[in-house]
Amino acid sequence: MPDRPHVVALCGSLREESYTRKALRIALDEAENRGASVDLLDLRELDLPLFDGDDRDAGDAAELRERVRRADSVVLGTPVYHGSYSSVLKTALDYCGFDEFEHATVGLLCVAGGSFPITSLDHLRSVCRALNAWVVPHQVALPTVRSKFDGERLREERDAERVRTLGRRVVEYANIEPDPACPESLENVGATH
Question: Where in this chain does the record put each NADPH-dependent FMN reductase-like domain (predicted)?
């Protein structure tokens, strides 16, 4: 890769001791080890009121969009709530759009207290497809997450390797040539095609 890719991770958890944030840091460390510059966009540090389409620049929305727009790859991380992704991540994604995600590479990661977290990743994949982003095939789900961490480190090497692989993939595919627009993005009200 001729240019150093830039990877931004959005942490969709507001918890102080967030497992999502810990897992994203592992992925970003691996991305940095692979030559990328990285940015952990911790949504608890931004003022993002519930999205109102009449006020797209509320709070820190402009900062959020600018930091995401600079990324070659974006990693979306979320805890699983009721089988889907968090409201704080939903709000952040609502403030973004095609300018931030079209043709971007996206990696997906979720953590769950229970044992079946996959639907949240399916929901995020659908959102990214509608924004014409390219989502890497490898995704990470960490079920029963309370037992997974020892401080900042994952206890099981197989879990750590899955998270590190996500960090590698978003660097490897940071500059993938985009496919033609998908039907979802062409039918999306915000589409600019």
Answer: 6-144
- The H-assigned helical ranges of the chain are 19-33, 61-69, 87-95, 98-101, 118-130, 157-172, 183-187
> Is position 1 within any domain?
no
Question: Which CA distances in Å does 37 have to 2, 70, 79, 164, 169?
Answer: 14, 11, 25, 15, 14
Q: How far apart are CA 145 and CA 58, in angstroms?
A: 34
**Tens digit of pLDDT for each residue in 155-189?**
999 999 999 999 999 999 999 876 676 676 566 65
SS3 150: strand
Full-model pTM = 0.91
Pairing of strands 153-154, 149-150: antiparallel
What is the C-alpha to C-alpha distance for residues 124 and 171, in angstroms, rounded to an integer? 20
Q: Is 192 part of any domain?
A: no
User: Is residue 69 helix, strand or coil?
Assistant: helix
Contact call for residues 96 and 127 (beta carbons, < 8 A): no
Q: How many domains does the chain have?
A: 1
